[in-house]
Amino acid sequence: MMIVLYLLAIVLANVITASNDPIVWGKLIIPAGSFLIGATFILRDLVQNAIGRKRTYAAIAAAMVLSAASSYALGDTLWITAASALTFLCSETADTEIYTRLRLPMSVKVLYSGIVGGVLDSVIFVVIGLSPLGAGFLPWSLVGYAVAGQIAVKVAMQGIGALAVHFVPQTRSAKAS
Fold it and tell me: What gap in Å lies between CA 123 and CA 101, rounded to an integer?
């Protein structure tokens, strides 16, 4: 069930981003799907608890293909689709490896690994997908605001997720991870 939620969150993030204008908060630019992308890192951690690290990579591969396919199906350019796949591979792998190696309470692992994954996700996607280097949707003068906006949302989501994990009773397999 956790894998289904993980995959569903990824597709919904793409749909929400494609069908809504970015949120502008001050100078920050935040794609609407960023809220769900922040949640995917938490869901990925829970998937890893449920099926183990090695099988989690199969879920990440499936999610990467699903993300790229849904991005393309929603009419994104090849730059955006490729950036989505590359971003997903890098950020989810970093999240997985950091989560695996930390010997801390689960809530802290969720927080730290998700922050790193979220920062990588934000930087790689905006620079490769949206900047003049990629599809050119954002001029260089706005790239920093777009990166900062996504990071702010993803870090907030990790904080909320870490609090939820801290206060929700864990199963033995979650404690053992």
Answer: 23
